[in-house]
C-alpha cells in the first residue's frame, strides 16, 4: 500500500516511493536508544546528525505562549538555518518546568553537541511526553551516549521508534524525487497522536534531504509546506507546548535546486505531498479517532473562512456526529454561525461528500440514504460556501469518540 | 434545599425564596399545552401573557450569524421594550429553514397575538428542538388555542414543562425581594442542557416581575445580569441558533424602582443571583455533565483574560480531566498558552481549589493527596493569574464525559 493513502494527497509525478529500510539521504545518520524515560522500557532518546558542514536547515515551532524548555532553546540558542544535529526525547515534555527546565534542556543540548563534535548552536532539541515534570537529565545524557554509538545511515527506523509515544501508525517515508538536474532524496520521521496530550503526545517532524538548497529556499519551501500541512490539522483544537518541525538539507546528493526553477517547484510539490500525508496520518491517529474529515470553506474574507473552518473542525457536536456516521449538517450551520457571531446573518451553502444539503442557510431536499452512506466512509468531506469567492481554506480533523474520553479522563498522570 | 445551591451564588440579603407553586407576579398568566411536536407526547407549546398595557420588557438574543427564524422575528418584528406576550415551542428549532421558516414563525406570532388580543409586535416567539426541520405550523396553532384556554397565574409549572427538552433538572424560581419601597416579586422559567444540540437543546429564559421599571432600567439591569450569567457559561463551546432571554415587568406590584436608587441595586442583585444560579443549573445539566467548574482569570488585558478563560472552559483536555477527577494542571497551562499563541511567553500562576500548583509557568511542590481530593468534588475552581492585574473574568463550564459522546454520536436525527 502506498504511503500516500489519502485521497486528499495526490502523488506528484516526480515522486517515487522507496522502501522504508532504504538508507537515509546522503550525509545523514540517525539512531535511537533506551534511556529509561519511558516506563515501558521502549526507546526514548534519538539523535540525528548531518555530516556536511555546509548543511542548511529550516525550523518551525509551536506558537504557544507557554512553550516548553526545548522549544525555547531551539528558538533562542541555535543557528536555525545551520542546524546539523537534533536531540529528541520522548517520555517527558520538559514543559511548565520554568528556569530549571531551560537549564536542563541546555545541558542536554551541550552534551549532544559534544557527542556529535559540533557547537551547541548547531544542535536543536525537542521533547515529547508529560507536562510539568522535570527532565531526568542523567538519563538523557546516558541515552545520548548510547545513541551516538548507534548512529547509522540505516537509523531512521530506530530514531522513529524513539520519538513515538501513543502513535498507532508509523509516520515516516523515504522518497526519491526526479528532477531535471538529477534525483534527490527526502526522508521524514514524524510522530503525533493528538495536537497535545500532556500524558502522551505532541507533534514532531524531522525531514532530511540530500538536495543542495540555499537557506532562503529551504526556509521558504518548508514554511509553505508546514502551513499547508501541520498548520491545517486538528485532533482536539489543542496547541502543543512542544510542536517542532525541522528540515535539514545536506546538499551531498549533488543536485542543486535553484530558486524559482522548475526543479524548485517539483521539489516543493514533493515536500508538500510528504508533509500533508504525514499530517493526515497524525489526524487519523488522533486519540480515539475512527474517521477523519476535511472541511473546505470558501467566501469573501480570509479571516471569516479561517474562523468557520476551525469552528467546524473543533466543534464537539460536529466531531461526535462524524464519529457516529451521522449526516447531522445542522451542526455545521450552527458551528459556522457561532464562529461568525456578532455580524450579519450569513446565508451559507453546505455540501457533504458533494451532496448539497443547504442553500442560502435553508435545508434542501436530498437523497438521505445516499448521504447516510457517504458519511460512514473513512474520509468525509464538508464544503461550505459563504458569500463571496475571494478566500478559501481547509482544515483536516478527526472525530470525537468514547476512546478520546477514556484516554483523557481515565488515565491520570 | 435552597434554589441557590451553588457556592458561587451568595444569596442577597433582600431575597426570600417562595415555594415553586406560588402564583406568578401580579399581572402574569402562563400555560403549557400538548401540540404534538414532541414525539413523546409531552407538553410542547407555552404561552406567557402580561395583562398590563404598561408593561416594559428587555430582550437578549443569540449573537450567532445563523439565527433561527423565531430569533429573527423577535429581533426584527417586535417592540422589544414593550413585549406583553411570549409564544414558545419545543420539539422544533425552526432553524436553517430559510424564508419559509420566517414565514412560519410570523404566522405563529400572528396567531398568538390574536389569541392574546394584542398586536403581534407585542409578542415574542422562541423555539427549541431539532435544527433543519420545518415548523409544523398547524400543530403550533392548535397548541396556541389549547394554551390560551389554560392561561393562569398558576401556570408557571405548565409553561416550564412545555419549554423543556432534555433537561434533567427543573430550572425555575419564585422570589420575593424586600425593597425600601415594599416587596417585589420575580419569577423565572429557564431551560437548557448544552449550549446547543440540534437534536435537543438550546437556552431559553423568561423572567417576570411586578416591579415598576422604566424601559431603560429594565434593559440595563437585564443586560448586565445576562452578561454575568448566560454569557459566562459553556457546556461545549457551541453557540445556539435559538438562545433567547426575555424580562417582562408588569409594574402591577406598585413598587417603583428608581434609576440609581438603593432599591435598584437590591433588585439588580436579586436578578443577578437568580440568573447566575439558573446559568449554573444549565451548566450542571450539560449533556452528560458530572461535575462543574469555574475558571477565574486575572491579568493585564481584558481580551487576553477572556481568551484564556474561554480556552480553558472549552478545552477537551481540561474537560476530560475534570470528568476524571484528575488534577492535570499541565493541561490548563497548555490551553492558556494555545489561546494566547503568537505573543510573548507568558509566565502564569495557577491555583486549583486554592492550592497553588504553578508559579511563573513552572511547577511547584504541593500536597498531591489534598489536590487529588479537591478535584473530585461537585464544583471545582481554577484560578489563573497572567501578568498584570487590571482585567479579570470568569467562565463556568461542565466536564466532557462518555455520556456527552453517547448523546451526540449515537442518537441521530
Overview of the molecule:
Two copies of one chain form a homodimer. By secondary structure, chain A is of the alpha+beta class. Chain A has eleven helices and 17 strands. Chain A has helices spanning 69-76, 98-115, 137-150, 156-163, 215-227, 262-284, 302-314, 316-324, 330-339, 368-374, 402-410, and strands at 15-17, 28-33, 45-50, 56-61, 85-90, 123-128, 171-179, 182-191, 204-209, 233-234, 244-249, 292-299, 349-352, 355-359, 362-363, 379-385, 391-398. In chain A, the strands form three sheets. The first copy, chain A, has a seven-stranded mixed β-sheet with strand order 10-17-12-16-13-14-15, with helices on both faces. In chain A, helix 2 (98-115) runs parallel beside helix 3 and helix 5 (215-227) packs parallel to helix 6. The model of chain A is unreliable at 195-200 (pLDDT under 50).
Quick overview:
The first copy, chain A, is of the alpha+beta class and 413 residues long. Chain A has helices at residues 69-76, 98-115, 137-150, 156-163, 215-227, 262-284, 302-314, 316-324, 330-339, 368-374, 402-410, and strands at 15-17, 28-33, 45-50, 56-61, 85-90, 123-128, 171-179, 182-191, 204-209, 233-234, 244-249, 292-299, 349-352, 355-359, 362-363, 379-385, 391-398. Chain A is 32% helix and 24% strand.
Termini separation of chain A comes to 37 Å
Order of strands side by side in the largest beta sheet of chain A?
A: 10-17-12-16-13-14-15
Shape of chain A: globular
**Strand tally of chain A:** 17
| Low-confidence residue ranges of chain A | 195-200
The assembly state of the depicted protein chains is homodimer
Give the topology string of chain A: H per helix, E per strand: EEEEHEHEHHEEEHEEHEHHHEEEHEEH
Query: Into which percent range does the helicity of residues of chain A fall?
Result: 25-40%
